[in-house]
Structure formats: structure tokens, C-alpha cells
Amino acid sequence: MDWLDAVKWDAQGLVPAIAQEVGSNDVLMFAFRNREGLAKTAELGEAVYFSRSRNRLWHKGEESGHIQKVRELRLDCDNDVVLLKVEQLGHTPGIACHTGRHSCFFQRHEQGQGVWRSVEPVLKDPQGIYK
Amino acid sequence: MDWLDAVKWDAQGLVPAIAQEVGSNDVLMFAFRNREGLAKTAELGEAVYFSRSRNRLWHKGEESGHIQKVRELRLDCDNDVVLLKVEQLGHTPGIACHTGRHSCFFQRHEQGQGVWRSVEPVLKDPQGIYK
After folding, report:
1. ipTM of the complex as predicted
2. Of the candidates B100, B73, B99, which has an alpha carbon nearest to the alpha carbon of residue B85?
3. Residue B73 and residue A108: Cβ atoms within 8 Å?
């Protein structure tokens, strides 16, 4: 069986994908990927997602230069979630988030206060990332 | 605004959730959570998901004993994905997967061969986990 056929695509033909940084093991981002995007990811060795808002393939870093080199691709026990171990290129430390932060998961729940608080620094002004 | 209202719930009233192990930073599993599940997760300090197959709240570990103590809750930049930093209880090393493995992401894509291969050991026979 083709490895792409082994993936359980959802009703929209997509699979959720988590990007994790090699080395730090930080979770950088989460996005969806269609069959073509997963095939291209393996072929290029760079993360290609499917943008639901733009309804097209999205080669991560195509505008920002923040390419994700894929070191490993993993599939979960139910064959319906993909994990990418990536090297986040284009800036040191790596910037995966469109807000200019290292990771998209920069809002922390503050238990006592019942709020989400931004707790990670902006590493680069997004205006300088997307020209 | 209530922190639960800040979350962008999908059409089914769910939000994708990634569980990551504190310390190792390993990604353990991925599942969905509804509003009640997220509220309970914060209240108990233990991971409560929504099981789409059983259509009910699922207190992770309720059968297996493999409870996830939640050390931190994070929300992504689009407010539509949650990351839980957890301590995986019930076994050392932690078992998050129903197959008896540490993580659900145990299938690795073998680039040259075009297959997914199981590359992580079963730490405990599932028959001994679910009695």
C-alpha cells in the first residue's frame, strides 16, 4: 500500500499536522495538510501545508523565508495525525509563528486569573518578515 | 472575556489539543476537546478530552490509570489549537498510547521505502492496561 493511502484523510481530504523542532523538541505550530502537501513535504524535505483560508498549498516560508527542513515524519496510532520533526530555518532562534515568535503556542492559561497571557517574546517584527 | 470564550471552537464545538510531556518535551498524543472538557481539564488539573467515537467526555486514564497531570495550558496564535504540557502518570516511562507505547507517534516514514514503520517499543501489553 502507498504510504499516502495509509493516512486516514478527513472528510475535507486533510490531516492535522504538528511541527516540532528537532533539538529543543518545542512544538512550533499546528496546521493541516492535504495529500498533495504531504507528498510534496516528503519530496522536497520541506514542510508544505494546505492553507484552508487561502484554499491552496502553502510552502511554509515562501514569503517569510522561515522554511522548515523536515528531518522526520511520524504518523500516530490511528493513522490520522502527522508529526513533523523540523529544523526551523531563516532566523536564530527559529521563528515559526507569523507574529514573529518562536512558536505559535505563546499564550499561557493563568489559572488563578482565568485568562490567556502572552508569555513569549516577539523575536522579529512581522512587518519586517512579510514585506 | 471568559478564557473559554477566547477559544475559537470549530463547527462541532471542538478544539484540537496536543499533549506534550514536561521534561522530555515529547509529543505524546493528539485529541479533541470540547468546552466542558477544557473547563474540567483546568478545574481538575488533569487532561479531559472529548471522545468523538464514544461521543462523551473522556478523562484520560479513567480505565488505564494513565492520567495526565496538566502543568501548563497553552493556546496558539489563532486561538484555535490548545497545547497541554503534562506529566504522564501510571507507568515509568510514561505510556500515553493505547497500544502501550510512550507516544502515539511511533510510526516513522521511511523515505526510501515509501512506508510507515513502527519504531518505538511497546512498554506494556495493552491487555494488561485495559482489564
Report:
1. 0.96
2. B73
3. yes
* Interchain contact B26–A (C-beta under 8 A): yes
Determine the pLDDT at residue B121: 98
The answer to whether A120 contacts chain B (CB < 8 Å) is no
* Residue numbers in A near B97 (CB within 8 A): 77
> Which residues are paired to A75 by β-bridges?
A82, B107
- Whether B109 and A6 lie within 8 Å, measured CB to CB: no
What pLDDT, in 10s, does the model give residues B87-106? 999 999 999 999 999 999 99
**Tens digits of per-residue pLDDT, B53-75?**
899 999 999 999 999 999 999 99
pTM: 0.96
CB–CB of A74 and B3 under 8 A?
Answer: no
Give the whole-angstrom CA distance, residue B14 versus residue B7. Answer: 10
Helix (H) or strand (E) holding A38: helix A35-44
Q: What are the beta bridge partners of residue B74?
A: A108, B83
